[in-house]
Amino acid sequence: MTGFSLKLIAIATMFIDHAGYILYMYDEAVFMRYIGRIAFPIFAFLIAEGCKYTGDIKKYTMRLFVFALISQVPFALFTGLGVFGYKNIFFTLGIAVLCIMAYKVVKEKYDNSILHIAVAIILCFVGYTAANELWTDFGGRGVVLIILLYLSGRKEIQLVVLLSFMLIMYSDNMGFLIGGMASIIPIALYNRRQGYKANKWLFYGFYPMHLLLLVAARYIFL
After folding, report:
1. By the 8 A CB rule, do 109 and 92 touch?
2. What is the reported pTM?
3. Residues with Cβ < 8 Å from 97, sequence gap 6 or more?
4. Per-residue pLDDT tens over the stretch 88-100
5. 120 with 103: CB under 8 angstroms?
6. Cα–Cα distance between 143 and 47 in angstroms, integer?
7. Alpha-carbon gap, residue 116 to 119, rounded angstroms
8. Which end of the chain is more exposed for a tag (fewer CB within 10 A), N or C?
9. DSSP secondary structure string, the chain?
10. CB 136 within 8 A of CB 87
């Protein structure tokens, strides 16, 4: 399974999840939310992989924060929690990549394994705290997950990290836990190939656009 295939699965399940959020008054919507748990682990995995192979992590980080700002108004309309309240997922991703960028700078400058471990722990703490203080989607746990996926070299270790995240995040909701664990299957099948080279802006732009679409549908049909 290519990176393009993973992206399609992630955005499709994210759309189902957010549609379920809009249709929360219907019993069927809960199953849509379960399916939606597949999305974030895949996004987290792809972001971690992107940090390994991007040619310019500074531009990568900037791009995430630009779309965080662009997406915040649509996200606020979607959640009803205000522009300065709950922050969209791009903030979570941006904080994680910012921490990874700092780690890469230290690792490239200093050849000291103990220092690398210490810096990784500090950055996990800083990223966790920043995301929770900003009240971002998936919060500090999401940031730490991305950092750990980046630090985990082998896919087997990455899958263990993902499984541990599911057990911690969804221990009190069996439906969410099963949905989240389902994300491990396509990730395990990932062949580390990019696949079809779609315009990256389409994937970034899909997030705010689908939120606006769902908000419009809520006002028109519900």
Report:
1. no
2. 0.93
3. 47, 51, 57, 60, 61, 64, 146
4. 999 999 999 999 9
5. yes
6. 11
7. 5
8. C
9. --HHHHHHHHHHHHHHHHHHHHTTTSTTHHHHHHHHTTHHHHHHHHHHHHHHH-S-HHHHHHHHHHHHHHHHHHHHHHHSS-TTSSBPHHHHHHHHHHHHHHHHHHHHH---HHHHHHHHHHHHHHHHHHHHHHTBTTHHHHHHHHHHHHH--SHHHHHHHHHHHHHHHSTT-HHHHHHHHHTHHHHHT--S---S---HHHHHHHHHHHHHHHHHHHHHH-
10. yes
pLDDT at 44: 96
Residue 84 structure tokens: 């300065």
**The pLDDT of residue 4 is above 80:** yes
Place of tokens 């990784």: 120
Give, in degrees to the nearest 5, the angle at Cα 129 between 88 and 41: 50
Tokens 């028109």, residue located: 220
- Count structural domains, the chain: 1
User: Alpha-carbon distance 138 to 136, whole Å?
Assistant: 6
Q: Domain of 40? A: 3-221
CA distance 165 to 214: 29
Which residues is 87 bridged to in the sheet? 136
Mean pLDDT across the stretch 157-182? Answer: 93
